[in-house]
Write a structure and sequence with these properties.
Elements lengths: L1 E5 L7 H8 L5 E8 L6 E9 L2 H11 L3 E2 L2 E2 L1 E4 L7
Antiparallel strand pairs: 1-3, 1-6, 2-3, 4-5
Length: 83
Amino acid sequence: MSIYVSNLSDEIEENDLKRIFSEYGYVNKIQISLNQKTGEKRGFAVVEMATGTEEAEAIRALRGIELMGYSLKVNRAMTEYSI
């Protein structure tokens, strides 16, 4: 179960996201997106939770909260399927 989190500060670290998402369940993995050429953060991340219930609860609770001066956009991550 994955959550797409955007509108993140350049200062955000994995531990910051783990701290707030852990309140809603077990966090399997966090991946903060980086620009491959510069290594700079791109302002979004994917957080993988253990269950759909935990995912839904985190999305509901964290959508729109302020973190480091930014209002978070939190949604279920879209999965691409090949046909």
